[in-house]
Amino acid sequence: MADTVTSQTLVDGERNIVMKFTNVSDGTGESEVKKVDVSELVGAPDTVRIDKVTFMTNGIGVRIDWHGETNVQAMRLPQDTSDTINLRRYGGVVNNVVAGKTGDILFTTTETALAGDGYTVILEMVKT
Q1: Which domain holds residue 8?
Q2: pTM of this structure
Q3: Could you list the pLDDT tens digit for every one of the 128 residues in the chain?
Q4: Residue 101's CATH number
Q5: How many domains does the chain have?
Q6: Buried b / exposed e across 43-65, counting CB within 10 Å, b at 16+?
Q7: I want to staple 79 with a disulfide (CB 3.0 to 4.6 A). Which of 28, 61, 65, 119 is the partner?
């Protein structure tokens, strides 16, 4: 079996992209799953900047990575938490991968996933 996941694009404009991701785990969790593929976005930008994250986690956390030759952690969302993190005034979280930068964003669940654990994550991003 596998986790039940959804990825939904809410806005994909010339500059801004908003996406919503959900996961209800069967106990296996996710490991380096591509959630944002920049080559599929309108305008095919090189990368995106994360300006705002709204999330809810239940039983598991989520590590958000920039994809590259060696993935680089963009942020970590703690388990059993709900919050909104607005990073616009600080310039957002920029992709700082050095080698093999693809611009894509990957999710990995953290902590041991049990059946029924899950998350909802909304990323508000700017294309760069």
Answers
A1: 4-127
A2: 0.96
A3: 689 999 999 999 999 999 999 999 999 999 999 999 999 999 999 999 999 999 999 999 999 999 999 999 999 999 999 999 999 999 999 999 999 999 999 999 999 999 999 999 999 999 99
A4: 2.60.120.1330
A5: 1
A6: eebebbbbbbbbbebbbbbbbbb
A7: 61
